[in-house]
Amino acid sequence: MQRYKCIISYDGSGFSGYQVQPNKRTVQLELETVLAKIHKGVPVKVSGSGRTDAGVHAKGQVIHFDSALQIPERKWEMALNSMLPSDISVLSVVKVDESFHARFDAAGKEYRYQLYLSSKRDPFQRNFAYLYPYALDVDAMKQASKYLLGSHDFTSFCAAKTEVVDKVRTIETIDFVADRDLLVIRFVGNGFLYNMVRILVGTLLEVGAGERKPRDVADILAGKDRRLAGKTAPAHGLYLWEVFYS
C-alpha cells in the first residue's frame, strides 16, 4: 500500500463544502467517487488538510489517500484530472511516507479573502470576490490588523457553534494587496478556527467603514465573546491558498 499526497484546487461555487455530507455534492465525495472507479469499485478514503464551507474556494488544498495500485505519480495526476469534474483540478501527486497525514501534519495555512471594491457589480466576479461598494479606509484596517498578530484566544472570531475547546491560534501575517478594483487580504497562521477568517474580515470591514476604531479589535479579542465581533463575511470571497508542512 502506497500513500499519495495531492495538491488540488477547486471552485467552491457548486459545492456544499469540502467534507462528505448526506445527499450533498462535496469535493471529498467527487474525489472518492473517482478513486473508487479507478479501484474497480473498492472504496478509497480521502483525508484533507481541513474543511472548507459551501462556496469557499481552494488554490492549494492538500489531501492524501492510500492505494495498492502501481501507478506512476504523473499518471495518477492525469487519470484523476481526466475523470474529475471541471471545477476540481489536481495540481500534483507525490508519494509520501505512510505516516504522513494531510491534516495532522499541517504546520500552517494561508488564506486569502478577495474584495471587489466597485459601485457596479461584475458578473465575472460574483462567485469569486465579495462586492463591497462603500468607501473603505484601508489604512485603518491595517492598523486594526496589527492587534490580531501573534498568539491569542480567538473565541470572539470563531463561530459560536464550534466544538473546539482550545481556541488559541497564532497569526503570523496579515497583509493587504490592492490590484485595480480588487483588495486581497492575506492571512498566514498556524491554524484557523471555524469561520475565523471570514469573521476577521467582517470585523476589519467595519473598521474600514468607520463603524469601529482600530483599537476596538484588541477589546474584542480580550472579551472572548463571538457577539463582540463583526458579521461573518460571505463565503465566496475566501480561498484556502496554501498549506504548509514542516
CA radius of gyration: 19 Å
| Residues in helix, % | 10-25%
Write down the overall geometry: globular
Main beta sheet strand tally, sense and closure: 10 strands, mixed
Order of helices and strands: EHEEHEEEHEEEHHE
| CATH class bucket of the largest domain | Alpha Beta
The strand count comes to 10
> Could you list the spans in which at least 5 consecutive residues all have pLDDT below 50?
none
Strand content: 25-35%
CATH topology of the largest domain: Alpha-Beta Plaits
Annotation field: number of helices: 5
> What number of structural domains do the residues give?
2
| CATH-scheme architecture of the largest domain | 2-Layer Sandwich
Average the pLDDT over all residues and give the rounded result. Answer: 97
The assigned structural class equals alpha+beta
Task: Describe it.
- The chain is α+β, with helices and mostly antiparallel strands and 246 residues long.
- The chain folds into 2 domains: 2-96, Alpha-Beta Plaits (2-Layer Sandwich), CATH 3.30.70; 108-245, 2-Layer Sandwich (Alpha-Beta Plaits), CATH 3.30.70.
- The chain is 22% helix and 31% strand.
- It has 5 helices and 10 strands, in the order E-H-E-E-H-E-E-E-H-E-E-E-H-H-E.
- A hairpin with an 8-residue loop joins strand 2 (47-48) and strand 3.
- Helix 3 (138-146) packs across helix 4.
- It is globular.
- The model has no long low-confidence stretch (mean pLDDT 97).
